[in-house]
Design a protein that fits this description.
The chain is α/β, with parallel strands linked by helices. The protein has 11 helices and 8 strands. A hairpin with a 5-residue loop joins strand 1 and strand 2.
Length: 298
C-alpha cells in the first residue's frame, strides 16, 4: 500500500494580485523543488512523494496551473501556449520567497518544466522530465496520445465548451461514485499502471489528482489540454539548464519516442529508460528522480 500524505490545498498571492493554488510535501526547510503536474491533474497528485522528499531534505512545491484547483485563470487575450507559463511560475516562487529551485515536469507538466528551464536559467538549477509529452506540431502529434487524452486535446482546441462539459461531468461522477469511475478509467490503463493504482488506499485517493483539478470548474483543465495540443513557441535547442529525462519503454499514454526526440534536441540532455509499460512509473521511481536533481544542483 502506498504511503499517501494529506494533500492540503494552499494558496499564495503574487505581487500582481494573482492567486496560485499549491500543495507542499517533504521537508518544509529543505531544498526547493517545484513539481509540475500532468493533465488532467493538479498538485494534489504528488501526495505519494511526501516521505521520499522528506527523507532527502527536499521541500516539494506543487502549484496548480492557471484555472486549475484554486489558481486564478490565465489572463485574457493572446494565444494560449506553454511559453506563457514561466512568468507565472517565477511570480509564484517570488511569493514564497524561493529564489532558486529545481523543476520536475511529469507527463503534461514536462513541456511547462522545459519552458521554465528555457526562460528562467538564472532561477532553475536543473530540470527533470518524467514520461513527458512531446511538442505537438513539431516532433509529436495529438494522435500519439492514448484515446481519452487524444479526444480531449482535440475537443479543447476545436470545441472548448463541449470539452468543459465533458470534464465537469466526469469530475462530478468521480466524486459521487469513485469506485465505478476508477473502474472505467482503468479500462485504458496498462496492466502495469493498474498495479500502481491498486497501491492507493482508496479509489477516492487515486482520483484526487483529477477531482481536485476541477475544484472551481473544468475550464483550466481544458486550457491545459489546448496549450499542450499546440507548438510550445520556444526552442528547446536553446535550453542551457541541465535536463534529465525518464520514460518507460512501452508507455501507452505517451510514447517514449517523445522523450528520445527531446533528448536529441537539447545539448547535454540524458534519457533513462524504465523497462516496463507504466506511465505512472514515477510513483515508484520518484526517489531516483529526486536524487538526480540533488546531484545536478550540487
Amino acid at each position: 500500500m502506498l504511503e499517501i500524505a494529506e494533500a492540503v490545498p494552499r494558496t499564495v498571492r503574487a505581487s500582481d494580485g494573482r492567486v496560485t493554488g499549491y500543495y507542499e510535501y517533504g521537508d518544509p526547510n529543505g531544498t526547493p523543488v517545484v513539481a509540475l503536474h500532468g493533465t488532467p491533474a493538479c498538485g494534489a497528485g504528488f501526495a505519494w512523494a511526501d516521505r521520499r522528499a522528506r527523507t532527502r531534505g527536499i521541500h516539494l512545491l506543487a502549484p496548480d496551473r492557471p484555472g486549475i484547483g484554486d489558481s486564478d485563470p490565465w489572463d485574457p487575450g493572446g494565444h494560449l501556449t506553454v511559453n506563457r507559463y514561466p512568468p507565472l511560475l517565477s511570480a509564484f516562487a517570488d511569493a514564497l520567497e524561493v529564489q532558486r529551485f529545481s523543476v520536475i515536469g511529469y507527463s503534461g507538466g514536462g513541456p511547462y518544466a522545459l519552458a521554465a528551464a528555457h526562460a528562467l536559467p538564472d532561477r532553475v538549477r536543473g530540470t527533470a522530465v518524467v514520461s513527458g509529452a512531446g511538442q505537438v506540431g513539431v516532433w509529436a502529434s495529438v494522435d500519439d496520445f492514448e484515446a481519452t487524452d487524444r479526444r480531449l486535446t482535440q475537443l479543447a482546441n476545436r470545441a472548448p465548451g463541449l470539452a468543459r462539459a465533458v470534464l465537469a461531468l466526469s469530475a462530478r461522477f468521480s466524486r459521487v461514485a469513485p469506485q465505478t469511475s476508477l473502474r472505467f478509467a482503468q479500462i485504458e490503463m496498462s496492466k502495469a499502471d493498474r498495479a500502481v493504482i491498486a497501491g492507493f488506499p482508496s479509489a477516492r485517493a487515486a482520483l484526487a489528482v483529477f477531482t481536485e483539478s476541477c475544484r472551481r470548474g473544468a475550464a483550466g483543465v481544458v486550457d491545459d489540454y489546448a496549450a499542450l495540443g499546440r507548438p510550445w513557441e520556444f526552442a528547446v535547442e536553446e535550453i542551457a539548464v541541465p535536463v534529465r529525462c525518464w520514460h518507460a519503454t512501452t508507455d501507452r499514454v505517451v510514447p517514449i519516442r517523445h522523450s528520445e526526440e527531446l533528448v536529441r534536441r537539447i545539448p547535454g540532455a540524458q534519457l533513462s529508460r524504465w523497462d516496463d509499460g507504466r506511465h505512472l512509473a514515477i510513483v515508484d521511481h520518484v526517489g531516483e528522480v529526486l536524487d538526480a536533481l540533488t546531484e545536478i544542483a550540487s
